[in-house]
Amino acid sequence: MTAVRLRAALSAALLALALGACSSSPAGSHAPAGSSGPAPSGARITIKDFRFQPATLTVPPGQSITVVNEDSTAHTVTADDRSFDTKAVSGGASAAFTAPAKAGSYPYICAIHQYMHATLTVS
Ligand SMILES: [Cu+2]
């Protein structure tokens, strides 16, 4: 008899614990997966509103550069001299390329929207 009562009390306590754990976990405290992982250690170019940000970026030779396209249309990061070219990066997607090994100033455009200009400086 007492064993049955004990078990009932136990399961009630467990239920309360489970409910408490549930309601104490704030909804939406976690960022959606993929949108904000650990910050990449390399450089980054963000494309937004048909503009490269920053418009001028200076990196060491061979630096890995992440390109994040925050527009809804595809863009590219294409060096005028073709020393780098991400090809089309879909809207909302990201890509990466490696900065040239040779120091210098590398103007680049979006090959799809050729009025989009920016410069990568390697030094
Ligand atoms: Cu574009």
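qc> Residues 28 and 46 are 26 Å apart (CA to CA).
qc> done
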